[in-house]
C-alpha cells in the first residue's frame, strides 16, 4: 500500500475542536475480549445450543486479529500464525487448536462447513500485515467484505436464515466495523501505524495523518470523521430492514440489540471526540438496547 503524505496541507488549519462532553480517561490500549466488545458476543438471547459455536467463531477471529497485530513479531511470524489458523480451519491436525475447536463445535450441532466464514475473514487479516491506510471508501468497503460481512453471514447460516435480507446484514456488519474504526482512530495510528479512515476523505477535509497523534481532533479531521459518520448512518438505515426478515425470534432480538447499540455509538461519536476520550455506549444505552431486544423477542416470526 502506498503511504499517505504526512506533510501539512496548504491552507488547512489544525485548530483543535474541544469535545462537547467531559473527556473520560483514555486507556493505554484498546481493551480485548468479548466482555469489552461494543456489541454482544453469544448473549443469552442466542439459543443455548448455538452459543458455543458463536464463542468458538469469536475465539478464532480474535486469534487471527491478534496474530496480524502481534507486537514483537516480524511479518513472517505473524503470517505463520495466520497460516496455522487457516490450516486448523481446513481440519489439519497441526493447525491452530481454536480453529479445530470451531470445526468440532459446528459438526456437533449439524452445521459442518460454516467455518468457511472464518476462513473468508483471513483475507482481511492478511491485508493488515501490510496495510498502512485505505485509499478510498471503495477500498475500505472491499476490506469490510472480508473483515466484517462474514460475521453476519455466519450467524445467518448458523440459524438457517436462508430467506433473510443478506444485503442488510452486510450493511449492518460494515457499519459496525466503520464505527469501531472511528472509535480506535488514535490507537490504530499510534500502536499499529494503520489508518482506516479513507485517505481521500482526509485529504478532501484538509486533514493529515499527523492530526491523529493530537490530543483532540482538529477541525479538518473532525470533518473527515463526520463524513464517515454520514456513511455509517446510511448503512444503519439499510440495516434496519434486517430484523423483520429473520424467522428466528432470538436472532432477531439479538440483531435489534446490536442495532440499538450501533445507533448509540454513532450518536456518541457524533457528539464526542474519539481522540480525546474513549467513546463507547453507556450503561443506559446498553439497558435500552436490552429492553428493545426483549420486546423484539415477543414478536411473531415473519410470514412467508
Describe the overall structure.
This protein is mostly helical and 304 residues long. The chain has two domains: 87 residues; 168 residues, Farnesyl Diphosphate Synthase (Orthogonal Bundle), CATH 1.10.600. It is built from twelve helices and no strands. Helix 2 packs parallel to helix 3. It is globular and about 50 Å long. The N terminus is likely disordered.
CATH secondary-structure class of the largest domain: Mainly Alpha
From the N-terminal CA to the C-terminal CA, the straight-line distance is: 47 Å
Count of the domains: 2
- In this structure, how is the largest beta sheet organized? none
Helix proportion: 55-70%
CATH homologous superfamily descriptor of the largest domain: Farnesyl Diphosphate Synthase
Low-confidence stretches: 1-29
Number of strands: 0
Sum up the overall morphology in one term: globular
**Strand residue percentage:** under 5%
Cα gyration radius (Å): 20 Å
CATH architecture of the largest domain: Orthogonal Bundle
Give the SSE order as H and E letters: HHHHHHHHHHHH
User: How many H/I helices?
Assistant: 12
Report mean pLDDT, rounded to a whole number. Answer: 89
CATH fold descriptor of the largest domain: Farnesyl Diphosphate Synthase
Structure class: mainly alpha
Nutshell version of this structure?
The protein is an all-alpha fold and 304 residues long. The chain folds into two domains: 44-130; 131-298, Orthogonal Bundle (Farnesyl Diphosphate Synthase). The chain has helices at 48-69, 75-89, 97-108, 116-128, 137-147, 149-158, 166-183, 185-192, 199-205, 219-239, 249-271, 283-297.
